[in-house]
Fold this sequence. Notes:
CATH superfamily of the largest domain: P-loop containing nucleotide triphosphate hydrolases
Membrane topology: Multi-pass membrane protein
Distance between the termini: 39 Å
Keywords: ATP-binding, Cell inner membrane, Cell membrane, Coiled coil, Exopolysaccharide synthesis, Kinase, Membrane, Nucleotide-binding, Transferase, Transmembrane, Transmembrane helix, Tyrosine-protein kinase
Strand content: 15-25%
Largest sheet: 9 strands, mixed
Organism: Simonsiella muelleri ATCC 29453
CATH class of the largest domain: Alpha Beta
Strand order of the largest sheet: 13-20-19-14-18-15-17-16-21
Oligomer: single chain
GO cellular component, one term: plasma membrane
Number of domains: 4
Number of strands: 21
Protein name: Putative tyrosine-protein kinase EpsB
CATH topology of the largest domain: Rossmann fold
CATH architecture of the largest domain: 3-Layer(aba) Sandwich
Number of helices: 23
Structural class: alpha/beta
Amino acid sequence: MAIYSRYSRNSNQTTQSAPSPMNFSDDEIDLMQVFGVLWFQKWKIIAIAVLITVLGAGYAITSTPIYQANGMVEFTNSKNQVLGDLSDIVGGIQKTPADSEVDMIKSRRVLGKTVRDLNLHIGIMPEISHWVKLKQFISRTESPNINMMQPEVVVAQFRLPEYLYDKSFKLRVLSPTTFSLLTPTKQNYTGSVGVPLKIGQDGELIVEKIVAEPNQEFDLTHYSGLTSIENINKNLNVAPKSKNSPMIGLTLNGTNPTLIQTILNQIMQNYAAENRNKDIQAASNGLRFIDEELPRLKNVLQEAENALNAYRAQSGSVDVPQEAKGVLESLNKIEMQLVDLRTEQAVLNEVYTREHPSQKALRDKIQILNESKAKLNNQITKMPSMQQDIIRLTRNVEINQGIYVQLLSKQQELNILKASSEGNVRIIDSAATPPKPIKPKKLIIVLLAGVIGLLFGSGFYLIKSFINQGIHDEDEIEALGLDVIVSIPISHSQQKRDSALKRFSKKKYVRSNSMLVLKDPTDIAVEALRALRTNLFFSSMSAVNKVIMISGATPEVGKSFVAANLAVLMAQAGKKVLLIDGDMRKGYMHHLLSMPSSEGFAEILASSDTQYTHNIWKTNLAGLHFVSGGNTPKNPSELLLNKKIEKFLVWADAHYDYVVLDTPPILAVTDAAVMGQYAGIRLLVSRFGRTSLRELDACVSRFEAGNVRINGVILNGVERSAKNYYSYDAYNEKYGKYGVHQKSQRIS
């Protein structure tokens, strides 16, 4: 096809721009591009997903399993008949029974006793690496019936001063009967099983048993009381089975299934015992009050009986009037009620403060009864004097006698309650630990890791595609109105040689020093260059001359690679070719051809001599001559403004079949715009995935400013991508070998 560009612009025409791959600035994201990126990167995404899944599986395998012990108790909110209506008074102002019992189970009173009963203030954990856990898992997988014994050290006593509470000690097993202990202050002690080990002035450790290999380490900690309780509380869950249900469920999580079962059983037993002790304590308080009152009441009753008998002996037999009997009976009832309330008050004094609502309610009842008692006494004062005396004496005897009998009865009842109280809590289900841990959920973790891996891999490559704004397809270039002459696939063999050169070079910045067309003539990139050569052979027939300018937007797009290899291919086709390194600042083509860099293009432009042959080098390849960039001049741009370049290129066009002119990057300096004015064919090299459409558009603008029109674009370094996934395979063909060796020789 012809390489003359369709690209045109004027002041009244807006340049069409193609969207960059996966550009966030677009109003919509092309779903086909998204699917294309995911499909193209599918194996890498799958590899990432597999890697993260393996990591998730490793975590699931090596994570310490967490077990859960469970149990259930029943709480019945029954009244205490012995203590009268005390539970009614208290129950009216308390929380619901279930809530109160949950709080009681999780209280420091119950959990603290559990800690003391089981020595839970001593914490000792073996240090097991993830690698050891993995080996144990593999062993269990290969032999499921084998029980893997965990290392264990049993501590009978661990006493420390308070300032060492909650600090970690390191216990290392030396033998089945000896161990060493490293304190937080880096002091080292050595001890034996069953022998008390003195730690400082106030500390002592007694190890009861060791079941572990030598050098196995343990973390040993003496927790404070509050810390021990908190360690249980954060793993303990207590809740009613349903609303208003008397059943309360308990669960406890931990790494040791046997230990958590023991702890939960102890918690339930201590809770039930605390509930029983509450009734026993109430009975004890009532008994103490009665025991204090009975001797006094007995004396009062004796005195009242003596006084009544003496009055009757003195005054004769006097009966209580009928109207006074009703008053006397009412007084007796009030006194009995007051005795009951004072007994209840004695119990409440041990439980609540004076300002508690239960205490206030009881005092209000006592006050009402005392007011009623005062009214009855006032009625008695209005009776005749003799009747008042007999009523008063009889009342004293009957009331004290009734109180005394009532207290004796209550004393017996409270003694029975104290001896036989079972409380109102019953353990329904003792603690049990299922053999299967509740976490980690290994299957869920592995599946979740796989999903996260897929999402991470997909997101990574989508974001990478969003960020990469380089050209990925010929259509993007053609949308600017430019022809793509050829797409050159990336050469992996060239990449390997360049990478090896960088590894063995001491220089920080290293460029290629080999010609691909000579090193690997069957490479697919070389075949693409052959297609370019053929295209140029036909297209140059209608060009004003056969000077081919090759430029690029920025360094490292491969313009020198294209120019040098193209010149060699033309020479191999039997053409006489002159290759010119037009970069007088940083030209390096002489490295590719192993030629001297002096006496080159800069010297031709600076000299008035029209004999150019002494600045032209002949290579060993027939038909290929070379002009280096020469010694860097002070004013490269000014040298290009004289007519010497035109004369030289006219001379070259007359003496050679083709002249290949490699120029500096157009966006760096304007040299290429000047040189392009004398070239019959002007080509731009863009780098796949690196050169952006903006840079390419800016290149064309620079050339147009110098009245130079670009004839076509070479897309270099094409890799397989989501956009060219299928078309890329068309380049994958191998051709025959071409072998040549170079040797520099000056033209005579």
